[in-house]
Design brief:
Number of helices: 1
Number of strands: 0
Low-confidence stretches: none
Helix content: over 70%
Strand content: under 5%
Radius of gyration: 37 Å
Largest sheet: none
Length: 86
């Protein structure tokens, strides 16, 4: 009787260890997938930041060009005004 209970306990222990090792393998697989997703998110964030920087640079360039254009127009109007006053 004692032998049967030891064998039963041993069997269930091995069975439990097998189930636990399968769960560990599944968790490792999920962790790898999660890490891959996280790496992809980081890459996308870097691309997004680069795109935002390009947009910011383009806005600054446009702003500079508009300022230059306004300065030229102001000079033209002042020049025209001076001609009319003379």
């Amino acid at each position: 009787m004692f032998r049967i209970s030891l064998i039963t306990i041993g069997f269930f222990s091995i069975f439990s260890l097998g189930i636990a090792s399968i769960k560990i393998i599944q968790l490792k697989s999920e962790l790898k997938k999660s890490n891959a997703v996280q790496e992809n998110l980081i890459k996308l964030q870097k691309k997004n930041n680069a795109t935002e920087d390009k947009i910011k640079q383009a806005k600054e360039k446009i702003g500079d060009e508009v300022s230059d254009f306004k300065a030229v127009l102001d000079l033209l109007f002042k020049n025209e005004k001076n001609k009319q006053e003379k």
